[in-house]
Structure formats: structure tokens, C-alpha cells
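Course assignment 3, question 2. Fill in each field.
Student: A.L.
Task: Predict the tertiary structure for the chain below.
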Amino acid sequence: MFKQFTLGIEEEFQIVDPHTRELRSHVSEILEEGKMLLGERVKPEMIQSMIEVGTGICKGIKEARSDITNLRGIVSGLARVKRLATSTQFSSGAHQPTSSFKSGEKRATSMLSWTV
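Answer field:
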């Protein structure tokens, strides 16, 4: 059937102010530089305070771990230069503006409004 399985990892990061720990909508600033470094491996999410990174197609766990660790460092560094930080979500996204980067956002916003 399959000669070899492959895998990839996607991670989403919240962009936060490191002092107040509030979400910050600075995705376009990070994406601009991120695209130069990572190409299509860095993407915006529907909420403007969120960014997504994804590994390439990896042949195994060690390769995937190495790739995602490298991506985490790059995204963290890009945020740090802007005096921001990245984290998993721990703050309410209810008052964060949405992005127009992804199709189907109106439907998704209405579907997710109860979770934010």
C-alpha cells in the first residue's frame, strides 16, 4: 500500500505583548519578514493576533522535531524584534480583529464565535 509514511506538523502561535500578556494584532509585520525567511511555511490565521507555521514533509519524528524546533525559534525571534512574544492561547480572542487572508472567514467566525 504505502512504501513509507510521512508526517508534518502545524503549530499556531498567539502574538502577545510580553509585559501585559494581552494579544496583539501584529501578524502583518511578522508575516512580512517571515515570508522572506520561511516562504509558505508561515501563514496568517483568521484572528490577526495568530500566526501559523508548518514543517515540510518529514520522513520521521526526528526530522519533524528538528524542523518545528527551528520554526519556533525563527517565529519567536521575529516577534522579539518587534518587542512582542509568541505563545499558545491563554487570553480571550473575543476582541481581536479577524483577518481577510483565509476564505470562508465569515462562516468560520460565526461558527467559532461561541469559542472565542
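Instructor remarks: Helices lie at 27-38, 61-81, 105-112. The first helix runs from residue 27 to 38.
Grade: pending
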